[in-house]
Specification:
This protein is of the alpha/beta class. Helix content is 32%, strand content 14%. Helix 3 links the parallel strand 3 and strand 4.
Length: 168
Amino acid sequence: MERLRDGRSSDVSPTILVVDDELPIIKLCKALLEGAGFSILEADGSSEALKICTEHQGPIDLLLTDLVLPPPGFQLASSSNQFPHVNGLELAVRATLIRSGLRIILMSGNPDKELASHGIKRGTLPFLAKPFERDRLIALVQNVLAQPAPTLGAEDRPRAANDTDWFG
C-alpha cells in the first residue's frame, strides 16, 4: 500500500467539499465526482461549509465553492459568529485557516463579472466556469489535487478577504 505525502494510504479517495447555493449544482458535482472516485461532502452555503471544515473528523482535500453565496435571509453581522455567511472567496480564506493544506477551486456562472467584482485576476487561482462539462470538472479537480498542498506559515496567511496572492 503506497503512502501519500500527508501520510494517508493511496487507496483512500480524496475528499472534496462542494459548496453552492443551488442544490442542483451540488447534486451534479456530487454525482460526477463520486463517479470519478472522490468522496464528497456537501454544503448549501458558507456557514454550513465552515461548520463542516471545523467539525469533520476526516481529511478535506479540496474546497469546490461557488464564488457567489448569498446569505439565506436576513443576518446580523457579528464578529463572534464562528460560521458566518460569506462569499466564496472569503469562505476559501477562512477554510484555509481552519484546514491547512486545503486546495481551492472557485466556480461561477458569470466569471468575468464576478472575478472582477472580487478583485481576482484571471489565472491567479483555479477557476471553473458554469455551466461546465464532466471532463472539465474532473480534469481540473485532478490537476489541483496533483499539485503540492499549500503550506501557509503565519507570515503567509491572508490578511484580508481581497488578498488573493496566497492562492498562487
